[in-house]
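Final report, closing paragraph on structural work. Over the funding period we assembled a curated collection of sequence-structure pairs, and we close with a single example.
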Amino acid sequence: MQQQQTGRINAVATFAVTCITVVLVLLMARVVQLQIRPSPSLKKEMEPRVSVRQDLPLRGDILDRRGRILSTTRVGYRVVVDPTQLKQIDEAIVKIAKATGQSEERVGERILSRINENARRAELKQKLEPFSAAGGNLSALAAIRGAISSALGREEAGASVVATEDPDAPPRAIASAEISPEAPTPALKPIRYLPMTRLLSDPQVEAMRAAKVKGAILERVMVREYPGGPEVAPIVGLVGVGDAKSPSYGHTGVLGAEKMLNKQLVGSKGSISYVRDAKGKPLWIEPGQVRPAEPGQDVRLSVDVELQRIAVEELQRGITDADAAGGRLMIFDPLTGEVLAMVDIVRPVPDAKPYPWARVLPQTEEVAAPTGKNKKPAPKKQKVEDHGPPPPARYITIQRPEIANDIPGLHRNRCVEDIYEPGSTFKPFVWATITELGRSRIDEIYDTESGRWHTSYGRYIEDVTKRATMTWAEVLINSSNIGMIKGAERLTWKELHDAVIRFGFGQRTGIGFAGEASGIVTSMQAWSKFSQTSVAYGHEVAVTPLQMVRAFSAFCRPGDLAGTLPPVRLTAATADDVRGAVIQRVLPAKIADTTRDVMRGVAAKVEMNLATASHGGESGWKYSMFGKSGTAEIPLTPPPGKEFRRPKGTSGYFDDQYNSSFIAGGPAESPKVIVLCVIDDPGPSKIRARQHYGSYVAGPVVRRTMERALNYLGVQPSPTGATHGDLAGL
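Its predicted structure, as stored:
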């Protein structure tokens, strides 16, 4: 009996254990199945109930060299609505409209359109449930596609919309491709983020807080402001405007110094992690879950706001006086390599016409099919609409795209990004090289052919200042093309080519600006007798204003530093930066000083032109200077695109349209700054009067800018009688 009872107990126990084991196995299998292939509705519940809120850092300020704010960040607010949380919709629309100063119609249209869209998405999601149950089978999707289209009243499924981050932008359509078999549901989530305004004013923020609209929040946004004004905008640049999903809300530099210095300015974002309940409300914050944001560094630029203002005023005056299409002006510190001011102005010229470029017409002819083995199709013959040389007129020479609202920070900085032929301002570099190599003496007499001459290969050359003979020093002072070419003929092709490269032309300065041009220097392989002649007086070479002021520093640096080039800087230099700078020698110090002394005679011409133009009104300059003028025709550069060509029969240059420039250092006895001015396309009246040359239109701008800049910097006036220098000892 006892054995029977024991047997029954064992049987029951075995059965119970077996049942429990089966149940546990089934439970484990279900857990594995739910973990590996959960249903879409379960996926939402599986998300961790930990929310992370980004703590955005304040972007560092950009300051000028004296600590004046050029660009800064402050916190602003805008209204964002969650359409699913709005209860009393009509009342919410009225309150939001009143608080933000918008019309009720505009606010209502945006909110109601998203509410209706959410209803459509819910209906579409319901139609997709059979598809989800079918395990993502594509045939199931095809079977219900017609029902979805009918439900939405459209010809194609998936014609839903998504709210955009821009409150003025229309909703974006959801393509049917976004409803993928693997994850059809996420694209159909309700719209819960709807920006309603741009940046609010302080009174609007207070009004919105007082309205207490459920479902509407005030979202913090970082606002970049530019107290420096439009004068420095092309240098400072801009930050981007991204969407709220971006870690830094798009507060990233995209142009100018904002982009160049972005790593120092941007800082590092922080975060706050907290556990939330099923309704999304915060429950608690655990230790270590708060990481504060670190603000970006403030950065001082080398630019001085006051010098920038002086440069803008004088350049604008020079452009107006010359009836020019534009101009560029730079103030540069030759000792530290700092850019103190950099201005680029483009002036619309009412009577200038678009240049009639030759154009490649679209090819419509069919090409015969290739015959034979491995035959390639015959190339299409291009048809070009070319009417030959255009009639005489003033044409548009500066290609600048239209910018919405004319935002200064979006314009190209032509001092860094655009090139020009320097003309005679390039002669000091060639003159110094010839002198350094001992190919000419300062007092050597050159036959300058009374200003008209043909090279050995028949090229006609003409001087503006026509004299039978000149000393080698006078060749530079009077800017004799003939004398410079004869001097350059004493150099080998390689010597002249290498000298141009040595001064930094044909390569970027390394300032860090995006889009910096490297310039153009003919390669040694392509160098020819034409190159040797052209480069001698500043043609067949293209430079940026930034390259020119850096190269000219070789004539301006003091003592043993004379003949060396500084590294270029857009950030303010410290004493350690100057001491630790890499020195690049391009000339012996004695040759650099000699070239500077010779160029002091050029200032006399500029001051004479100023006195003549103002009937003696502009005189009594406090500071001496030395420099060089230049005038060069503007090259024909077709607009971007392969369809534009230079018309046949043209010389490669705009006829009677010039870039006129002047570069100078001052004070001549101990240079503190370099000033370069390029006047783009002086007007026809100046050309008819033969007053379009650099000494006439750009020289006065440099003279006035030099005087005001040195006075502002507190430089001691030049000794009496030092204005033009003494060339007797040369």
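Residues 150-163, 171-186, 243-249, 724-730 have pLDDT under 50 and may be disordered. The longest strand covers residues 653-666. We thank the funder for supporting this effort.
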